[in-house]
Amino acid sequence: MTRKSGLGLLAAALIAMGGLWMTAERGALSPFGAAEAQTAEALPEVPDLVLGAEDASVTVIEYASYTCPHCATFHQNVFKPLKADYIDTGKIQFIYREVYFDRFALWAAMVARCGGTERYFGISELLYDQQRDWAGSNDPQAVISSLRRIGRTAGLGEDQLNACLEDAGMAQAMVAKFQAETEADDINATPSLVINGQKHSNMSYAQLSNIIDGLLAD
């Protein structure tokens, strides 16, 4: 998925517009940016999402959006065998970086992060596997209801989900992190990969494994 207007402009818009945020139990829409924006120094930490060996000679960074259909296909056809063959075996370090093309992608990422880094990738799998069920709606209430259902399926409590989805400071910090990382790596489409500092566009598992095997052999 590509956004011609630029991810940096979108990031600024996500922060500035105040979004439309879902209140906990009423199902109503409320301004997510109602409180004063926090300064950069006051923003909470947004943990990196990392799998694999910390000291691996090859690092693969994936930039992806939960509302991107190509990313869901990549997750199914490329990430799963990559995890089995290279991540779980300690051959590479894998870093996942969230891209927010729209508010629904941001909300999904906040649900994924709600269980902490230990549970993130399990919730991420549910979001991608069920993407057609929740991301295809234009109704924010329907989307947030589906995201809550996915969170509950992953074992998150209702109070826990409420706290995560209403955390405007964390949302602002996540958007700031997304903006800084995509600008640094010149990311303008998803999925995109950065392998040992070299940017690559979407590719098949065979193509990716050939690149990784070549780097491992060096």
3D architecture notes:
The protein has 218 residues and is an alpha+beta fold. Helices cover 50% and strands 12% of the residues. It contains 9 helices and 7 strands. It has helices at 7-16, 69-87, 103-113, 117-129, 131-134, 140-153, 158-165, 168-184, 205-217; strands spanning 21-22, 29-30, 49-52, 59-64, 93-98, 192-195, 198-200. The strands form 2 sheets. The protein has a 5-stranded mixed sheet with strand order 3-5-4-6-7, sandwiched between helices. A two-stranded antiparallel sheet has the order 1-2. Helix 2 (69-87) links the parallel strand 4 and strand 5. Helix 3 (103-113) crosses helix 4 (117-129) and helix 3 (103-113) packs parallel to helix 6 (140-153). The two termini are 33 Å apart.
